[in-house]
TrEMBL record:
<dbReference type="InterPro" id="IPR012340">
    <property type="entry name" value="NA-bd_OB-fold"/>
</dbReference>
<dbReference type="GO" id="GO:1990904">
    <property type="term" value="C:ribonucleoprotein complex"/>
</dbReference>
<keyword id="KW-0687">Ribonucleoprotein</keyword>
<dbReference type="GO" id="GO:0003729">
    <property type="term" value="F:mRNA binding"/>
</dbReference>
<comment type="similarity">
    <text>Belongs to the bacterial ribosomal protein bS1 family.</text>
</comment>
<dbReference type="InterPro" id="IPR035104">
    <property type="entry name" value="Ribosomal_protein_S1-like"/>
</dbReference>
<keyword id="KW-0689">Ribosomal protein</keyword>
<feature type="domain" description="S1 motif">
    <location>
        <begin position="199"/>
        <end position="267"/>
    </location>
</feature>
<dbReference type="InterPro" id="IPR050437">
    <property type="entry name" value="Ribos_protein_bS1-like"/>
</dbReference>
<feature type="domain" description="S1 motif">
    <location>
        <begin position="34"/>
        <end position="103"/>
    </location>
</feature>
<dbReference type="GO" id="GO:0006412">
    <property type="term" value="P:translation"/>
</dbReference>
<dbReference type="InterPro" id="IPR003029">
    <property type="entry name" value="S1_domain"/>
</dbReference>
<feature type="domain" description="S1 motif">
    <location>
        <begin position="121"/>
        <end position="185"/>
    </location>
</feature>
<dbReference type="GO" id="GO:0003735">
    <property type="term" value="F:structural constituent of ribosome"/>
</dbReference>
<protein>
    <submittedName>
        <fullName>30S ribosomal protein S1</fullName>
    </submittedName>
</protein>
<dbReference type="Pfam" id="PF00575">
    <property type="entry name" value="S1"/>
</dbReference>
<dbReference type="GO" id="GO:0005840">
    <property type="term" value="C:ribosome"/>
</dbReference>
Length: 300
């Protein structure tokens, strides 16, 4: 080999080493807070775990960031050399080490799951952990939620609810402000809705009388009997027809679960226009037979 090719080879090899160093630098992962990364735990100690995530130096996961649930043995939730997902919760320090969390990742997943449940109008079981003037605090998948007093079935003795499990629906979910407002009434309404269908005869109590219609309570759910649906005959004043506290029967003509609306009708129970106004007791006493006849007419 002549001297020229020796020089060339030396130049090439030194270039390759430089290039290799630059390539290492270029591929020094710039991990950032909030980023989800994959890695393998290679060492456990009393304070936490060391994780290989492909960076210059290992990452560290503090013991209290290992899981949402209380952990006594880290190896239960952080098996060695198994590919796992982590959330970066602190940027690189002077040594290039980032801090990781499995717990915060689990919390993220819980929020996402709850949002999905809210979109699907689903209910969830929660445990009451505390009481204050405005309502109760609850544990929901290890997150802290709140049920306002007005959205509880039991509003007088809140202390008695401590430790109890309640079925609730979602009023407000805000991940940014950690706001999780729940409602037992919403869940009850949702459960009741599943038992209702148009054409069904229901019984309820008159809770309010307005110029446009009558509000009727159906096992904790409010329904509206509009003035136009009371009778086939014109009505001047509903106060002369109904009384608050009165029990009436009516047919469901429309349901809107999203808005929590139930529309009722008594006019379809009449054999002739104005019968309800002339003889309500008779119409109510024979409501089931009349409802069956009305549904048969609709089916024809």
């Amino acid at each position: 080999m002549n001297s020229e090719s020796k020089l060339s080879q030396t130049a090439n090899s030194s270039f390759t080493m430089d290039d290799f160093a630059k390539a290492l630098e270029k591929h020094d992962y710039q991990f950032q807070k909030g980023q989800v990364v994959h890695g393998k735990v290679f060492q456990l100690d009393h304070d936490g775990a060391y994780v290989d995530i492909g960076g210059k130096s290992s990452a560290f996961l503090p013991r209290d960031e290992a899981s949402l649930r209380a952990v006594t043995d880290l190896s239960e939730v952080l098996p060695l050399q198994e590919d796992l997902e982590f959330l970066v919760i602190r940027d690189q320090d002077a040594e290039g080490q980032v801090t990781l969390s499995r717990k915060q990742l689990e919390i993220q997943h819980v929020w996402e799951k709850l949002l999905q449940m809210q979109e699907n109008s689903q209910t969830v079981q929660v445990r009451v952990t505390g009481v204050n003037k405005g309502g109760v605090t609850v544990d929901i998948n290890s997150l802290r939620g709140f049920i306002p007093r007005s959205h509880l079935a039991e509003r007088d003795n809140l202390e008695a609810l401590k430790g109890q499990s309640l079925t609730v629906g979602f009023l407000e979910i805000n991940r940014n402000t950690n706001k999780l407002i729940l409602s037992q009434r919403l869940a009850a309404r949702s459960a009741n809705f599943s038992l209702l269908e148009p054409g069904q005869l229901v019984e309820g109590k008159v809770t309010g009388i307005k110029p446009f219609g009558v509000f009727v309570d159906l096992d904790g759910m409010s329904a509206l009997l509009h003035i136009k649906q009371v009778s086939q005959k014109f009505i001047e004043s509903l106060d002369k027809v109904f009384q608050v506290g009165q029990i009436i029967k009516a047919i469901i003509i429309d349901l809107d679960e999203g808005k929590g609306r139930v529309a009722l009708s008594t006019r379809v129970l009449e054999n002739f226009p104005g019968e309800l106004l002339e003889n309500m007791d008779e119409v109510m006493a024979t409501a089931e037979a009349r409802a069956n006849r009305a549904s048969n007419k609709t089916a024809e």
